[in-house]
């Protein structure tokens, strides 16, 4: 309880850690309550070398997380708020990691800079509330269902608002329904 740690080059931890099952790390149950975790992806990759992060992860910059991490190293629930240099992510996600990452739960983005993250000049900020279930973290292997509301989405210097989405993303292809009440949103 009330642990304050500095680990690696960038990581600072303030919170509570409970571990059951050491020294066998793969079967150790972890219960983190994070009052504050500050890190950079360089350190995260050192701690979790088996996780393959999507291209662009390094653009997140300094990461601040407040929330909980409960479960095993390869099967856990993460709920909380992640603030980065390019936007924030709030989640209540179950993640299972083996050859491919599988996940389900709530994922919300707030003013997340897709232009920087994906290196695509046509995109801008996005804010979305969603429920997601799927697998894969790279665009080449993602297969997920998503249902939610895109509160704002910047595309080619225009801000679209209030778009309902319900469908499947398979690799780079979306199949499903969009509903929007915007004169500039015409898919015909």
Descriptive key words:
mainly beta, eleven-stranded antiparallel β-sheet, 188 residues
Protein model, in words:
With 188 residues, the chain is mostly beta strands. It has two helices and eleven strands. It has helices at residues 41-47, 114-118, and strands spanning 3-7, 11-20, 29-39, 63-72, 75-84, 87-97, 101-113, 123-135, 143-155, 158-170, 173-180. An eleven-stranded antiparallel β-sheet has the order 1-2-3-4-5-6-7-8-9-10-11. Strand 6 (87-97) and strand 7 (101-113) form a beta hairpin. The radius of gyration is 18 Å and the shape is globular. The mean pLDDT is 89.
* Poorly predicted segments: none
Instruction: Please tally the helical runs, counting DSSP H or I stretches of 4 or more residues.
Output: 2
String of helices and strands: EEEHEEEEHEEEE
Share of residues in helices: under 10%
The strand order across the widest sheet is 1-2-3-4-5-6-7-8-9-10-11
Number of strands: 11
Largest sheet: 11 strands, antiparallel
Apparent shape: globular
Instruction: Supply Rg.
Output: 18 Å
